[in-house]
Amino acid sequence: MATNTGKSKQKKKNVRVDFTPMVDMNMLLITFFMLCTSLVKPQTMELAMPSNDKNIQDQDRSEVKASQAVTILLDADNKIYHYEGQPNTEDPKFLKATDYSADGLRGLLQKKNVSALEKKYKLDQDKLAMKISDEDYKKELSKIKGADGTPTVIIRAFKDATYKNLVDALDEMQICAIGKYVIDKIGPTDVKLVKNLTGVDHSDELKEEPTGE
Question: Are 104 and 78 in contact (CB under 8 A)?
């Protein structure tokens, strides 16, 4: 009786994976990210710095009407001081202390810039109602912020103030529609005003840093 001594061979099957649906999915993802990238606009902050125009005289560059000038001093531990107009180092109560709350620095700037804020509100309503284009909105807003009678804010920070303090102060410039503001260095008058109010002496900040020569 004949027997089958040969080994049975298992038939191999070729496995084929169809990647066609993956191509469609990738195209959808690419389209999604392209749309999101174009719709999301970067949030930038306008920063007004002193002009370097040589045609502007030094007197015109440095003079600011006392009634429109507000000087803000940033100090350590989230302390913030301010004064309006020309500094008076003879009056120990001339410098005022405030904070970063809505009733503090923001309230001060809003009171100084009431007219511009009212005009900006009306302009914002026109933009929401699509009565004005984005380009025209920016132009009109720039005019409102730079109009005569709007305050000029001078921001000065002591070395112990944090970067967050400066950013918070700059944020208030945008919120309160302040179009004219500069970041300046601490001077002897600022040191004396803070010492008169708090007793803290920042005279070491006026010392010249070594050049290494």
Answer: no
**CA nearest 193: which of 69, 84, 101, 77?**
84
SS3 label, residue 82: strand
Q: Dihedral (C-alpha) 74, 162, 51, 44: value to the nearest 10 degrees?
A: -120
Residue carrying the six token digits 């132009």: 139
Give 70's strand partners.
Answer: 84, 153
Residue pair 141/175 in contact (Cβ under 8 Å)? The answer is no
**CA–CA dist 154, 134 (Å, integer):** 29
Task: State the Cα–Cα distance between residues 95 and 71, nearest whole angstrom.
Answer: 10
**Strand-pair category, 152-157 with 180-184:** parallel
Average pLDDT of span 175-184: 92
CA nearest to 97, candidates 113, 77, 111, 126: 77
SS3 content of the chain, % helix, strand, coil (to 5): 45, 10, 45
Model-wide pTM > 0.85 = no
The label of the residue with tokens 């984005």 reads: 134
Q: What is the pLDDT of residues 147-171, one digit of tens each?
A: 888 999 999 999 999 999 999 999 9
Q: Which residues contact 206 (CB under 8 A, 6 or more apart)?
A: 186, 187, 188, 191
**Burial class of residue 37 in the structure, from the number of CB atoms within 10 Å of its CB (0-12 exposed, 13-18 middle, 19+ buried):** exposed
Q: Can you tell me the distance from the alpha carbon of 59 to that of 184, in angstroms, rounded to the nearest whole number?
A: 17
